[in-house]
Amino acid sequence: MSTAGSSPNEREEGGGKREERRKKGRIFRWQGIVPILLVLVLVFGGWMLFGERIIRGTIAEAATKALGAQFDLADLKIRTFATTVELRGIALADPFDRNKNLFEVGHILMELEPRPLLEKKVIVRRFGMGAVRTGTRRATPARPVTGGGFAPNAMREVQRFAQQFKVPLLALTPIDSLKALVLDPSLLKAVQAALTLAKDADSTKAAIEARYAGIRLQETLDSSAALATRLQGTNVRALGVDGARRAVADLRRAVARVDSTKARVEALLTETRRRVDSLQSGVSRIDAARREDYDFARGLLKLPSLETPDIGAALFGKVTIDKFEQAVYWSTLARQYAPPGLLPRKSEGPKRMRKAGSTVHFATPQSYPRFLLRQANVDVAIGGDEGSATYKLAVGAVTTDPAIVGRPTVFAIRRNTSGTNLDSVLITGSMDHTGAVPREIVNAHAAGMKLPTLALPALPYSMDPGRGTSELRFVLDGDGLFGRWSVRSTNLAWTLDSTRARRLNSVESLVARVLTGVQELELTADVSGSLAAPKLAVRSNLDRQVADRLRAVVGEEVAAAQAKVRAQVDRLVEEKSAPVKAKIAEIRTDGERRVADARARLDEEKRKLEERLRALGGGLVGLPRLPGE
Amino acid sequence: MLTFIKLLRSLIKTLHSDGSPAQIAFGVALGAALGLTPIANVHNAIVLLLLAVLNVSFAAGLLAWGVFVPIGFMFDPLFDRIGNWLLVDSRFLRPLWTSWDNIPGLALTNFNNTVVLGSVVFWLVCFIPIYFAARYGVVKYRATLGERIRNSRYYKLLETSQLYSVYRWFQP
What we know:
The complex is a heterodimer. By secondary structure, chain A is of the alpha+beta class. Chain A has twelve helices and 18 strands. Chain B has helices at about 1-15, 20-35, 40-55, 60-90, 95-100, 115-145, 145-150, 155-160, 160-170. Classes of the chains: A alpha+beta, B mainly alpha. At the A-B interface, helix 2, helix 3 and strand 6 of A face helix 3, helix 4, helix 5 and helix 6 of B.
């Protein structure tokens, strides 16, 4: 008999049948190990040939995505049995300047602890690096990093942060060449606020009227009046006991209705007052917006500011923001990669043809962190486009899981080629993400260092502070921000910027003369507030001198022009805001008048009803009370 | 097209092999893991090892791999949701995943990835249904169409081809 699954040849042989049954009955097929071993050999061979190349590509891609800037890795060596990784030719592009590298590192050697690797965790036992260069120019611009992830988010956060600062322009237009100002009312924030408030006032008025209509005052009054009229002059004896009881019940219901209507009228009064108060706060917003409009209109006229904070912010605002922007970027990124707490953390899954999904990391206080560099003390020769020097770099507790490590990440960089105060650099910092509120602190002090050249806005001059002292302190405590950047130099040099050279007007010439005559620089820039609402204050000896000189020469004209600007803004804003203010006052008066009127009419009606009730009650004894009375 | 012809040939060969319906069905159920779940994972190495050393149809396993790959791609959003529910939403499972993620070796399974875990769970749940469906299909085929196809000219041509000899090395 033929059975499903048997071959014709075997069916013919009796011995073959037994062999077939024996073969089919067994569970394991040990000869299957041979092809598996072959596959393993092939996999091992593939790993030897391409493994490091694949991992190198993966690291470069992941780091580029993670840091938001092109990360290059020339070579990678993995010594599996020694659990050592050697990286060569590392370069990270500057996320803020694609033509520069933030750093280049010749080689990095990391000795890893073996056991955590079995949990896909990297604990660096020993760390060494050499041939470091910073701020080098790239041969080709770095690729822009696109797509999602933490880094583009951090960059967006930083851009939002930077846009919140209002850096005034250094306007140096001569007063005699000022054109008459023709303001477009729709560009004024106060006008926009007044128009919005007018809409709000209209909708408030409509809402109050709808609410008033909903009270149905007239219906209540009419039905009460009808009842009172019906029962007027009625003889209680003629109604009989049942009729009298019904009449009393009707009267009591009418009184209750009047009371309820009155309560709703009182509630409407409270509501009206609340809404009008809210509209009044809108009026104060118009006044706040008007102050911004003064600045806006002054900016249109390009009136030179005579206030030192404005001049300081105009001269050094952008460069200050650039400095703190970078600190905010790295802090934001650090917060995203090393968040506080031990809650399961979701991150994007590995890139593959299939959907990546999300990878969730679970941790306990006893777990290994996903990444930890316990301690590193290295001497590195850091070079750049402007020469090299030897630095001592120390870092500790660099981790992705600060709650497990329980210590803040700390770092310090010190230039150790000099024993004097001259030519020294000390940068220290910490990232404390061990508690609920993350805190980052960076302190940098450089003395005797060549300070970067700053291009002056509005004038074709560059300021070269030469060698001087620079200090930076940055604290990001939760959302609270504090930063101070100061620069001191006694050998300031001014150079005409040939690429921006042009003929200067009288005010520009005056300011240029003032500035180029100054040989010392004392600058202090403060950033405060929060990430969502940062404030900038810049002061320097330059802005004081410029302000004094400008005030002496063009102070009166500027003051007159400013007064004109204010008058024009006031006129345009008043045109729109005065009717709104009147409407708000009308809503309040109307509301109060209506309520007073309704109250009086309801009281009168109630009095009449109670009179009828007393008249009926005089003829009856022991009438039952209505439920709820 | 070539892939489709290869698959068809593989299907016919498997159905006409000496393997019992149970051996073929077991091979299909195991091979489904290779197609349903992301391939480069530890559990798939174990599945491959089982396909090789267990007395099941290796060819059926490879065939199932090919058949279930598009299904896997199609169901990825579902796997992601299943995985998300198990890993994130099911708080009572959190201690299990926490210990799993922190045990040397087990962490390499990638079961903390929503798609990997979701697809593996889906495969495990479907293992028995796939097994029975495949067994039923093989029995039905052999009882109805099998003999006719075995006597066809094309099948004979296929049987004499060189590739068939290589294939026979792995038949159960």
